[in-house]
Amino acid sequence: MGVKPVDSAPGAGKTIVTQMSPNWITSRLDFLANWARANSLWPMPFGTACCAIEFMATAASRFDISRFGMERLGYSPRQADVLLCAGRLPFKLAPVIKRIYDQMPQPKWVISMGACASTGGIFDTYAMTQGIDTVVPVDVYVPGCPPRPEALLYGILLLHKKIRGETMVDKAIREEEILSRGGLRLPPEFVDEVSEPFGNSVHQTRSA
Amino acid sequence: MRREFGDKIGRALESCGDTIVYVDAGRARAVLAWLKETPDQEYNYLTDITAVEYRDAELPMEVVYLLFSLRRKVQLCVKIALPKDGDLEVDSVVPLWQGANWLEREVFDMFGITFRDHPDLRRILMWETYSEGHPLRKDFPLRGRLSRSEQVRRALHANPEAHYSMEELSIAESFNDLPEDMRQRLAQGERDRIPELGGAPGDG
Amino acid sequence: MGEKRTVELDLATPGWDASGQPARVPLGVAEAAGEIGAVEGGIGSEHLLLNLGPQHPATHGVLRLVVELDGEVVVRVIPHIGYLHSGFEKLGEYRFYNQIIPLTDRTDYLAPMANNVCLAMGAEKLMGIELTERCKVLRVIACEMSRIISHLVWLGTTAVDLGAFTPFLWTFQERERIYDLQEAWTGARLTTSLTRVGGLMADIPDGFEAGLRASCKRLPQVLDEAERMLTNNAIWCARTQGIGILSAEDAINFSMSGPMLRASGVDYDVRKDRPYLDYETYDFDVPIGENGDVYDRYLVRLEEMRQSVRIIEQALDRLPDGPINVDDPRVILPPKTAAMNDMESMIFHFKQVMEGVRAPVGEAYFAIENGKGELGTYFVSDGTAKPVRWRIRPPSFINLSALPKMAEGHLIADLIAINASVDIVLGEIDR
Known about the structure:
The complex is a heterotrimer. By secondary structure, chain A is of the alpha/beta class. Chain A has six helices and four strands; from the N terminus they run H-E-H-E-H-E-H-E-H-H. Chain A has a domain of 129 residues: 3-Layer(aba) Sandwich (Rossmann fold). In chain A, helix 1 packs antiparallel against helix 5 and helix 2 packs across helix 5. In chain A, 48% of the residues are buried. Chain B has a five-stranded mixed sheet. Chain B has a two-stranded parallel sheet with strand order 6-7. By secondary structure, chain B is an alpha/beta fold. By secondary structure, chain C is α+β, with helices and mostly antiparallel strands. Chain C contains 17 helices and ten strands. In chain C, the strands form four sheets. Chain C has a three-stranded antiparallel sheet with strand order 3-4-5. Chains in contact: A-B, A-C, B-C. Chains A and B meet through helix 3 and helix 6 of A and helix 3 of B.
């Protein structure tokens, strides 16, 4: 789309300090830490709508996220690793998910499940955020309306892959974001641009 | 078609097999009470309350009451026409049917029609300090009046859970016991404090 | 009673201030999204304000309950909704009637086919369209399947709320069978978009009937298993009997519908009292409760599932051959081969897709009996292809408004049980 997010992300004056250079020991420790983290990701199910039902189906016997160590649903954000936003996020719920995300301790990841959580889905209306990434940073987007349980599992496996690629040497990965610009984590022009309708939906907002 | 009692004001018509009766706003509660209590009518079940605004700006807005008689198994639709240039206000029917409580709150939230004597008329679907307007009005655009980033910003600061509204506290009794700053906040409605764009990190 | 104090917590998160020093950044919200801790000092004299926030495992969605507690007794409870408000009704004013059907999947997402049927029937009432026989029977099957899966979710999640986890897995396994059938029929497990104005999206595939009969044979066994676990269980009975009683007059006054109303003893079922889709020709019973407590609602819903199986079997036995769509090319898309070869069909196709099907001026309200209660669709049309007003009469919204009446005076654990018994689905409440 030809848009680059401003990469001086919120929080001017932040410096990234790497205290060690990557070496053989850190890579072995990374492997161990990432293996442990990836294989027991306790999800924080922020289930709002239909995708929550598919998430529940994924957690049930047939598709079984227990095989990935995720059957222990962390309803308290303090005990959860991955915030799984399943379903649409209206504006009224935006401060709630921001709150929950802030309450989760590092390391934490976010999976945006479904079209509505990723981009607003079919709801390009006055009440719906056009994607949870306008409010919290997202690691994996799982498309679908709702995504099949297999799709969600694929998204989880992608997250595993992402986690295994992390390293302790780069502190920036696990830093908390500080809000600025009046509370938005992305520049307002960027939020407006990604929320614009495109394609067919541009014509669908005529009444009669 | 059902012709009721003599002092009903308005017209009646039939649409797709349903009977619709128009009632004047001033007599509405009396008519609805009559419909509920008279042994012949007995519309004791309130199915729905909603409102309609037409695309044609000349037509008045309508508040629609869908009533059903459980014994006679008959449905009736009662409408009140509210011209848009007047007050958008009707009498609340909560004293007749408790189920009207939330239904009227929703009509207020979506259309801006107020209900006299409603016990707790606040917004129900949008957050209470929502300032963009009443969404289901025809002059309200589908995507809202503000830009998306502004909507996100306002939403993040609306803090619907921030401070409890007066209805939630044991109202008059506990107000005086609250600490001074909390009392001030409640009185002023601090929950909607939206900082300016471009503020320093850590603001808001 | 003593003075009542309200507790306000000030929560903040670690962050950095402008000079790069660590500081606490207040989150600006004074209450936690989960449960708040107890009041200090003066145990017997204060009320506690507890916020069962929008994010909570037992609220069945994003419902916020503000509870004022005197010890463990609920003095007041105020439900807050709107956390899933998506602007459905506004969006419907910008869509053709057939384009609204996918929207209805997402309102009551536990029973999508019933929503599709309700909307299509509302539009058909508005346009004055008569359905074919096969379509009617298939829609009855769809509605009853939806009722079954809705009640199965209710059973699983209510059991989880009250501490019995295993029935959740059983009911979801049973739902998977029905999901397979839905997927075979419509292509989607959950967002089915089954109906079109004047007909259905597709006929049932081969093997559907056999699969449905097998599922209908298996379901009563699963229900028996769940009943063996719960119905005469001392803990279950203690936690559900006498809890959340709603008298018949109150239930009518609060405009309850569905199992909530029938468990209180009121005999109102839209299928029997305002029959549609030839329901008067099917042989089934409607369970009515006596006490209006949580236990009665549980029994009513279990029995409704068994009756749904009965209806489905009758429907499958009587399923006639024939077309599923009404034979009106202005309303139903012509088959693709005709649209490609025949000029008139192509024009009809073009008009329907580009301009939509126009409805006559007027309005129509149509109600069906959903798993949750009376689901209604109210359309107002001004003669164009997009409705002036589309209103969903949401059963869960109205049922939930009686929660304060039912729960005040009970313990907080009972509040969870009562909330579960209302069987809410936030998509429909908030729309």
